[in-house]
Amino acid sequence: MSTFIAAFLFLLVFFLLMSIGYLLKRKAVQGSCGGLGALGIAKACDCDEPCDRRKARDAKEAKRQEYLAKHRIL
């Protein structure tokens, strides 16, 4: 029973540290090969025109990057 409790606590601490890392970096967990990003593919579909949700998300990210560049401390 003590082995089970130790393993559970280890996994709990591991997931806690992973969640803290995600909150601080705002970067999703990805595989070691990088997935589609390693191939230079920005999206899973091969549409010529991105959907409205994708356009809105890209615009929001561009605005966020502009804000971060403008208010950079260093």
UniProtKB/TrEMBL annotation:
It comes from the Bacteria. InterPro entries: NqrM (IPR007495). It holds the Pfam family NqrM. PANTHER family: (NA+)-NQR MATURATION NQRM (PTHR40691), EXPORTED PROTEIN (PTHR40691:SF1). This is (Na+)-NQR maturation NqrM.
